[in-house]
Amino acid sequence: VTLPSRNHPQLCYHCYQGVESGAGDWLATAAVNYGHSDEDGAYVTSALWASLTCGRLLAVPLANAFRVTSLVGISIVGMLGAAAGLALGGTSLRVMYASSVALGAACGPVYPSLIALAREALGDRLDGTLTSIFLLGSPAGGVYLPFLVGLIVRYLPNFGFGAALALAALLLALSARQALAAGHRSSSLAAAA
Questions:
Q1: What percent of the chain has pLDDT over 90?
Q2: Helices 160-192 and 110-122, interaxial angle, to 10°?
Q3: Between the chain's N and C termini, which has fewer beta carbons within 10 Å?
Q4: Is 162 in contact with 83 (CB distance < 8 Å)?
Q5: Residue 125 or residue 51, greater confidence
Q6: For residue 190, what pLDDT is reported?
Q7: What is the mean pLDDT of residues 150-168?
């Protein structure tokens, strides 16, 4: 197993955790920056977490209906769309609610689906040790990416929040693509040998 193919799933977890934590940590602040009240910010944040919970509950039936690559891809597109809504329409409280609910629902199935994505990318090389490294290392994304989101929100208060989330979701998409490509390359080489 080459080192890059083992690190791509870890990068997926880092980026995902950054999107989830960045949104949860900074959504209320972004709402206030957009001119909404503190109470509105709290309700929008609650809507995000409620929809994320519903998305996690829907992950099982969705996993039975879609391939893992499709489910993660659809979720990432949903995250990008919701982040764009927050970046471009955050001054409207309705858009902020809709984007927050969409972001939470899109994020819901991703975390559990990343294990299946890692299995698809790494095959039998994914063992308990490697899985624990992914799961224990993922909170790092929840530490440094929200910090970066906060810096962007500070200097670009009306646009930066959604743009930062979109960037993290885009990094998630690229790392998921690389994880699959690296896994397929390794599988092809192993089959050829």
A1: 22
A2: 30
A3: C
A4: yes
A5: 51
A6: 47
A7: 79
